[in-house]
Structures are given as C-alpha cells and as structure tokens.
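Lab notebook, design round three. We kept the backbone fixed and only want residue identities now. Task for the bench partner: fill in a sequence for the structure below.
Input structure tokens:
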C-alpha cells in the first residue's frame, strides 16, 4: 500500500463472525505502531447472520477527523465466502486497491467474478479457524491475510492487542493469523472480467385491496435485496392442532414470507424467513414454536 496517506479499510462479514473485532484489532495494532487509527461498525437492526460492515482508517501522519463510513476503501476484506455473490463487495474500491476474500475457491475462479484494477487475495480462513480455534470465526485469521496482502499493519503489532482481547486464547488466534499469512494466495484482477451478481426472485405481494382482512402492507423487509433465510439461526414450526387459521402470523411477518397453504394452514418460506420470531410472539393460540437451526 502507498504509505503516507490515510488507509481506509472496509470489512464485510455476517453478524457473529467478528468483523467488528477485526477492525478493532487493526486499529489497536496501528495505534501500537504509533499511528492514528479509527475502528467502527455499521449494522442495521438485523440479527446474527445478517451482512454487517466494519471500517478502519489508519494514518501514520495526522489525526483522522472524518467520521463517516468508508465508501472508497483501499482495502476490502470479506469474511464470509457467500457475500461475494450476495452483495457488491468491491463497491468504491480504489484502483490499485486490495480485495481479500475468505474462500475455498481458487484464485482463478474468483478472478472471474470481478472486473477492476485490483489485487485479489484468497485464503481458506474457515478451515484454518476450524482447525486452530475449533470454531468458524475467521476475524483474527483474516487479519493474517490482510497483513500479507496489504501490509496496513505489522504482524508483530498484533500480539499485544490480541492478548488484551483474547487472554489465554490469544496464542491460538496468533497461530491462525500466521497460518493465514503463510497460505494466502495473491493474484491480480484485470478490467474486463465478468462479475456474476446473484439475484433473487421475490413473489408479487398482494395490494391492500387484495388482502382478505383489513391491512395495508407498505413494503417487505430486506427480502428484495438479500436471501434473508441465509442468516436465520432459528425457524418457526407450526402446530396445526392449535392453529385456527386466522392469518395474524402472516400479517406480522416483517419479511412477508408466511403464506397460506391449500389446506388453509400457514407456513413460512425458508428462503426468506430470517428467524426473528415475531410470528411466534404474535400467534395468540401459541401455535408457533421457534426451533434452533440444526
Ligand atoms: S397466528 Fe397462530 S392461529 Fe393464527 S394462523 Fe398463524 S399460526 Fe394459526
Ligand atoms: S420468524 Fe416468523 S415472522 Fe420472522 S421472518 Fe420468519 S416467518 Fe416471518
């Protein structure tokens, strides 16, 4: 990376994967090096599993007064492989910038997803984290890939922040970081590649005049943009013996993904149910139970 300017980093992850911790550790390491640094997250009201962002700004020379989210990053780090085809992770990435992805896919395969003048780095961080940390949380592992590819901070600077944050678990996290550093594959993306963007078909929703009971629906939740079913950690299960087919659950579902079946009972669409549990709370006969995902 070019030294002297402020380096801006955008972390893409899902709620619970530790993108915010990655940004925190990066800033703490930079400060440990005597630099100025910021770390802050950005997420909406969604829950565990939803796409989240975290940001860093690092400057070796001057305090950072900008407080807004990073829209033109020098470095983009993607913690969840599924996000590559779900959202435009390279949005605003500066020419000559770095895109670092956790994926089991080969670098040649991933190169075809993007078009731009960027460095692309790939590491199988999930396998490293499972092996060394016994859990698929890749935040510290991806730091190793980021350090190797973009050098925004030094590996040595990480030790103290990791010990402060993880205590006895710091050693394993540092090992994961080093393993990612050693195994990250770095290549180039060139202009002209074909970016594949995943799109979702959302069923046409009824207008207010087509609804069976009096209710106006202004819009569905985030189902138009995301396959929200990807991020649920629990799902509703119906007990038809208790259900009186009133349809209240379907009216309260923020994703508008509960439909009446031919037999008159209601069910959710698992592709779009995000497991918020509102339907179970609103069902007045307790016919819905939320069950943890297997
Ligand atoms: S709110 Fe409860 S009783 Fe009414 S349709 Fe839904 S599940 Fe059945
Ligand atoms: S848990 Fe119920 S209310 Fe929430 S998204 Fe799923 S079906 Fe809709």
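Proposed sequence:
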């Amino acid at each position: 990376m070019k030294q002297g300017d402020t380096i801006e980093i955008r972390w893409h992850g899902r709620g619970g994967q530790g993108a915010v911790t990655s940004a925190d550790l990066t800033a703490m390491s930079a400060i440990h090096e005597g630099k100025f640094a910021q770390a802050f997250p950005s997420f909406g009201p969604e829950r565990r599993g939803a796409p989240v962002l975290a940001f860093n700004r690092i400057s070796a020379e001057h305090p950072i007064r900008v407080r807004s989210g990073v829209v033109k990053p020098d470095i983009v780090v993607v913690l969840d492989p599924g996000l590559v085809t779900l959202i435009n992770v390279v949005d605003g990435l500066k020419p000559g910038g770095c895109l670092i992805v956790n994926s089991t896919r080969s670098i040649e395969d991933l190169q075809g997803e993007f078009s731009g003048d960027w460095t692309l780095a790939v590491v199988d961080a999930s396998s490293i984290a499972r092996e060394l940390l016994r859990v698929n949380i890749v935040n510290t592992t991806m730091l190793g890939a980021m350090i190797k590819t973009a050098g925004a901070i030094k590996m040595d600077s990480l030790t103290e922040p990791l010990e402060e944050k993880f205590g006895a678990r710091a050693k394993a996290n540092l090992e994961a970081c080093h393993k990612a550093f050693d195994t990250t594959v770095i290549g180039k993306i060139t202009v002209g590649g074909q970016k594949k963007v995943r799109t979702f078909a959302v069923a046409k929703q009824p207008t207010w005049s087509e609804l069976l009971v009096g209710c106006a629906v202004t819009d569905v939740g985030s189902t138009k943009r995301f396959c929200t079913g990807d991020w649920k950690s629990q799902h509703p299960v119906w007990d038809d013996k208790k259900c009186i087919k009133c349809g209240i659950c379907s009216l309260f579902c923020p994703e508008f993904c509960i439909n009446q079946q031919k037999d008159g009972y209601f069910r959710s669409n698992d592709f779009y149910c995000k497991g918020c549990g509102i339907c179970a709370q609103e069902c007045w006969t307790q016919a819905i139970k939320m069950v943890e995902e297997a």
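Keep this in mind before ordering anything: The chain has two domains: 7-189, 208-292.
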